[in-house]
Amino acid sequence: MFKVVNWMIVSRSQLLIDLLDCRWPQEFLVKLAKAQPGNMVKMLAVQDNSLVIFDLSTIDLQQAYQLQRIIEREHNGIRTVFINFPRQMDAKFLVHPATTSGVFYSDAPLTELSNGFNEILKGRSIIPQDLHQSMLNVDNEDDSDQLTIREREVLQALLSGSTNLDIANQLFVSESTIKTHLYRAFRKIGVSSRGQAIAWAQTHIHEVRV
User: CA-CA distance, 188 to 191, in Å (whole number)?
Assistant: First the structure.
């Protein structure tokens, strides 16, 4: 008996949702659920989905990170895909080998998405070569789940109430670089928000102070 495959698209763009809803159910033989970032968690609790697609053109990167962390913790077996992935921002922290099945840049045409999702249906992962290589370079630099010196400095700065811009000015780097350090540190210490990171640092910062 044919088993229906359930996917979910998380986006604030009704135009994109309508476009994909016209194409994907017939093209991939899937049932496509539509969710807003604010109701994704509630919908996942009552629907059996195998794939969640995040539209990063309409979702803040921090919110996408938090939603993916919920999937990792609470929905074993669900894979994630990011469409409209930004080229100009360092968003590698969103991509997790255990859960991410695909990444498609914002300039990817629909034909590229179609070919990629056909491969994902076959159990393959579709990650752009340049992004995959840059992730390998990061892995080689970190080489473990231990916090880097810069990540420790950023966590230390959180305790003083500094904003991302304050920390960036202190360390002479861009604000987006600070966000990247924060998200990598979040993943390593097992938190998904700034408040949780501060609470963690209040207990553990003496162990990571340099």
Answer: 8
